[in-house]
Design brief:
Elements lengths: L2 E8 L3 H12 L4 E5 L15 E3 L10 H18 L4 E3 L2 E5 L16 H11 L5 E3 L1 H7 L10 E5 L3 E3 L1 H14 L3 E4 L3 E7 L2 E6 L3 E9 L5 H5 L3 H4 L1 E12 L12 E5 L7 E4 L9 E5 L18 H11 L7 E15 L7 E4 L2 E7 L10 H14 L17
Parallel strand pairs: 1-2, 1-12, 2-9, 5-14, 12-19
Antiparallel strand pairs: 3-8, 4-8, 5-7, 6-7, 10-11, 11-12, 13-16, 13-17, 14-15, 15-16, 18-19
Helix pairs in contact: 1-5, 1-9, 2-9
């Protein structure tokens, strides 16, 4: 017997778990599938922490998503009793006049300037600090005289594994069927619905949401297979000289743009209770992967040493080059680093929620809520319009 539902959700990472939960909460009959057992370390939603901000420097279309997400994360915390988001404040440091990059790789053009503009436009509490004030309040950071220092007190960090697990559990509570360890193989539109064939059977539904991250291109096929590009990224944890200056309240999350090309930036997090190493990472777009299975999860110590040497000296004090551990994850990038969220132009009953292009976790709960609205109301919510598949460059 073939199981049926109103909607099938494929993928239970950040966006998929949020979508399954928000659909089930609306009373929609949901079957949700994942080839692994989330939360897991095979995709993009792991590593212990993700930065969340309210003023978004990647463009005007993202700040409304972030503001909605911050409200929804707190609602989920209240519903589950879980701690999902920690407010630490955030620093964004860089030279606004040096951040337009054109080296053929995804970048963050005018990031500091756009962050400040978004904060002003949406009345988000923030400060633009002078160097003396920045040095007094955040003595581990050493920006140059040519750099701007933006501080957002309401920003902080999310705990991705907890976020994913909490939303999967909420989806179950609201009646969703969650099948993990089951791989979706093919999607067919037939009659008035969609058939999804897996390695364990088949399902039919009125609509399907594909939130499969790095596996989305291969599952969707066609233009998606070449439009979605996968990159391996690495996060490192370094031993501090003294952990005290890196505690929350003294050391905020940060993003530091210090050069004119894509690779000239890095980001990091404060220490949490029980931690002994400072998490610092960068983004690299050297070679795309042919598929998610090609990811090398083993991280050689030379990768950490190279990252430390490129970014830390002269900028952060008290962080040694002694690596404690490193973790690899995947970015699935759409053209121009945009999100892709909306109905597949070739298949009206297929909704694509990928890619999040490396900056989607903080927005994911809002994306899931809006995708649920799209499924139920049919008409696309206005906040998703900028990410429609026929609007993002091919």
């Amino acid at each position: 017997m073939i199981e049926s539902a109103d909607v099938i959700v494929i993928g239970l990472g950040a966006a998929g778990a949020a979508t399954a939960y928000r659909l089930a909460r609306r009373g929609v009959r949901v079957i949700a599938l994942d080839r692994h057992h989330p939360p897991h370390d095979k995709g993009s939603s792991h590593g212990g922490s993700r930065i969340t901000r309210q003023a978004i420097g990647e463009g005007d279309d993202y700040t409304p998503l972030a503001l909605r997400a911050h409200r929804l994360w707190r609602e989920i915390e209240a519903e589950t009793g879980e701690s999902l988001m920690l407010t630490t404040g955030a620093l964004v440091i860089g030279r606004p006049d040096q951040e337009t990059v054109d080296n053929g790789k995804p970048g963050k053009p005018d990031f500091v300037r756009q962050t400040i503009a978004a904060a002003r436009r949406f009345d988000i509490p923030h400060e633009v600090l002078g160097l003396d004030e920045a040095a007094r309040r955040f003595p581990t950071f050493h920006p140059s005289g040519e750099e701007t220092v933006y501080f957002e007190p309401g920003a902080g960090m999310l705990f991705p594994e907890r976020c994913v697990a909490a939303q999967i559990e909420l989806a179950r509570r609201h009646g969703a069927v969650i099948n993990t360890g089951e791989t979706a193989l093919e999607i067919f539109e037939e009659g008035e619905g969609v058939r999804v064939v897996t390695d364990a059977g088949a399902y039919v539904a009125g609509q399907v949401v594909v939130a499969a991250g790095a596996w989305a291109g291969g599952l969707l096929g066609g233009a998606h297979a070449t439009r979605l590009v996968i990159y391996r990224q690495v996060m490192h944890w370094f031993e501090p000289v003294d952990p005290t200056p890196f505690s929350p309240g003294r050391f905020p999350v940060f993003i530091w743009m210090h050069g004119a090309v894509t690779e000239d930036w890095f980001y990091g997090f404060p220490l949490l209770p029980g931690e002994t190493a400072v998490k610092i990472a960068e983004e690299r777009f050297d070679e795309p992967l042919p598929g998610p299975e090609a990811q090398t999860q083993v991280v050689d110590v030379s990768e950490a040493r190279s990252m430390w040497a490129r970014h830390i000296p002269g900028r952060l004090s008290g962080v040694t080059d002694r690596r404690v551990r490193s973790v690899a994850c995947l970015y699935t990038m759409a053209p121009s680093g945009r999100f892709l969220v909306g109905r597949d132009p070739a298949r009206e009953r297929v909704i694509v929620v990928s890619a999040c292009s490396g900056h989607g976790f903080k927005h994911s709960v809002a994306i899931g809520d809006l995708v649920a609205e799209l499924v139920v109301e049919t008409a696309p919510p206005a906040l998703l319009a900028p990410f429609a598949l026929d609007r993002v460059a091919q």
